[in-house]
Structure formats: C-alpha cells, structure tokens
Amino acid sequence: MHDAVWxxxxxxxxxxxxxxxxxxxxxxxxxSWVGERRGWNDKARVEHDARGSWxxxxxxxxxxxxxxxxxxxxxxxxxxxGASYEEIARTGGGxxxxxxxxxxxxxxxxxxxxxxxxxxxxxxGAALVEVKSGYGLDxxxxxxxxxxxxxxEGVTVKTTFLGAHALPEEYKGRAEAYxxxxxxxxxxxxxxEKLVDAVDAFCERIAFSRHxxxxxxxxxKRLGLPVKLHAxxxxxxxxxxxxxxxxxxxxxxxxxxxxxxxxxxxxSGSVAVLLPGAxxxxxxxxxxxxxxxxxxxxxxxLATDHNPGSSPLSSPLLAMNLACTLFRLTPEEALxxxxxxxxxxxxxxxxxxxxxxGKAADLALWEIESPAELAYAIGANPCVGRVRAGAVQ
Length: 393
Ligand code: DI6
Ligand code: FE
Known about the structure:
By secondary structure, this protein is α/β, with parallel strands linked by helices. It has 15 helices and 16 strands. The chain has helices at residues 73-80, 85-90, 95-104, 107-123, 139-150, 175-192, 210-222, 239-245, 259-268, 276-281, 290-295, 316-327, 331-337, 340-345, 373-376; strands spanning 2-11, 19-27, 30-36, 44-49, 54-57, 59-61, 126-132, 156-164, 198-203, 228-231, 250-253, 271-274, 300-302, 363-366, 383-388, 391-392. Strands 1, 2, 3, 4, 5, 14, 15 and 16 form an eight-stranded mixed sheet that branches. Helix 5 (139-150) runs parallel beside helix 6 and helix 8 runs parallel beside helix 9 (259-268). The chain is globular. The two termini are 22 Å apart. The protein binds 3-[(4S)-2,5-dioxoimidazolidin-4-yl]propanoic acid (DI6) and fe (iii) ion. The site of fe (iii) ion has 5 residues, from loops.
C-alpha cells in the first residue's frame, strides 16, 4: 500500500522518455512507483487527479547568493550611465557595498529577507536551492549568513561557503593574509558548526588568483568538503581547469573558458553551470563554449545566480528562457539544467533531479501542453501544484 498516487498525469521524469499517461506514487516522502498508467495496479491510501497536468521533478537552483541585505539598484543606474561592473567593484561599490549592509543586519533580518525572496522559487516549484555565504568576509558575518541559510523553510537548502568572494576593505592590499584568515579561521569554524556543504571561490582578476583559490580548495579537502568555483566569468584565468584538477562538483559561469578547460571538466566529471541571468544583466557578449560542452558530453546545469549585483533574478523559468534565447540551449537542455544536472552539481543526484523510485517525492505540477513551454514562455508561471516529501503544499 502506497501513501498516495497521482493519476491522469503526464510525466517528464528527466530519466527517460516522456510519459503521456502516467502514474506516480509516493510513500514515506519518497517516490515509490513511477511509470505508465496501464502498469499501475497497486493501491494507495490517497488518489490525486492531476487533471492531465505535467509533473516534473521540483526545480533545483544550484547557484544562488540568496542571503544578503541592502539593494544595489543605484549601481544599476550607474551602469546605465556607462560605468562597468568592474569599475564599480574597484571603487568600493559592488560586492563590498552588500558586505557593509550584510554585516549590519542581524541573523533574523537576513533570514526574513531571504525567506521573502524565496517565495518566488516556491511559486515556480523549486525543491532544492543552494545558498552561498560571501557577503560577510569576516568570521561572524560569514557564520551568520550560513546559519540564516540553514533556517530557510519550504525547500531543501544546501549551503556553500564563499569566504573567498571579494577582498574586504580591512585587508586591502593583503590578499594573502585574507586567504590565511579564511583558511585558518573562518572556514574551519563554519565547518566545525556543520554549516558548510561545499566550498566555493571567486577566481577572477577583481577577486582571487588561481593560487589563492587552490589554497582555499586544499583547506576544503582537509576538512572533507567538496568544492565548486566561480570560473572564467569575466576573463580566462584557467578557472575551469583548476576546478577540474580539484575534482569540483561544478565550475560555474565559464563564458571565457577555452576548449582545454572544457575537456578537463569532462575528465573530472564536474558539471558546467551556466548563469544566463548574470550574462544578460551585465550585458556580456562572450558566449560560454556550449558547442565544446556538448562535444565533450559535459553535463550542463543552469542556475539563477540570484545576487544583488550581477543577477537580481528570482525566476528559474526566466533563467531557462534566457539560456535558450541567449545561449541557444534547447528547451530540453534547459529543463535538464534545472533538474538532473543541477542536482548533480550539488552532489544530490541520489535524492533529487529526476522522477525515479527512491528519490524524494519533491514534485511540481504544470498546466502546459508540453515541457518545452516552460522554457518558451516569458513571464508566465503555469505551476499549479507543488509536492514536498510526498505532501501537497
Ligand atoms: N560572481 C557573480 O556574478 C556574483 N559573485 C560572483 O562571484 C556577483 C556578486 C555581486 O555583485 O554582489
Ligand atoms: Fe555567483
């Protein structure tokens, strides 16, 4: 006897062909049966009529900076007048302005702000969201951000430590000393409190070098934590190859990555995470090497990269549309990017990303004619139901 079954449902399992008349059952929070309707002859305590809607795995947003305080709308205005993102960052704005606001906020305030933002993801059927630190850049604020992220409700949260996001003002001109501080004090403290699921860094001209990034990764390894990287977003620093060398779960952005970098990702089994929101909002023109990713069979995930500076985007659906219009992904690739491949980018492929027996019954129902409509429409939200651990939300 299963707890519940959904009938009259169309299934995009993301693990096999589309099923136009399907059934999916859940028991104890997990998927306990999935397949063609005609194959279902079990019993369930509750029977749901999905009225012909499409069921997909709940979306996985594998790269966000959801916890922060303050707004950067004024920088948007400066950029519209001609200033560049890098110029603003170099003159103390950018990430550092969000750091000032985030340091001044309490943990409860950060939680309330992030919880309110998260509503948009819930409305679009998200199940699993990654949240990074990196707007504290001191011990207490980095921990405060991660504690707030851990308290978010409504989705499963994976936390990523991003202490090496920018050089804080008090370490100006002393990047090596800051990396010492991150490796010796902040990351070990966050890990000791079990606040960290993965470790990330921003490897970029305006942030940290390859060598500094490698030091952070070595510390992560010592603490038994997986790594991921903001790689080659604004310039080719060889970030993808560095991430691959450290067996990263993912390398993210990748606009400037060269073919050898993609080949390295293929060898290491790392996921390439594309962030079309940042590409769009910063009006970048250099396209990530999608053809090389396809050629090398690198799994491609998509994420919102929600953050106040380069991607104030709160919609997985819009991220999929941007990936198709700007990067020429197919709708099918875009859907895989927010489900199966995104789960893998978080090391969560055994519980999320597909509709398969044994995985979490974290599902979304959509009133659409075909799954491609999710990437095609702009500004519509046809989500008509969300199920979390088998329970209708
Ligand atoms: N890359 C980004 O796009 C964001 N962080 C990063 O490492 C930008 C964060 C910000 O501008 O606040
Ligand atoms: Fe980011």
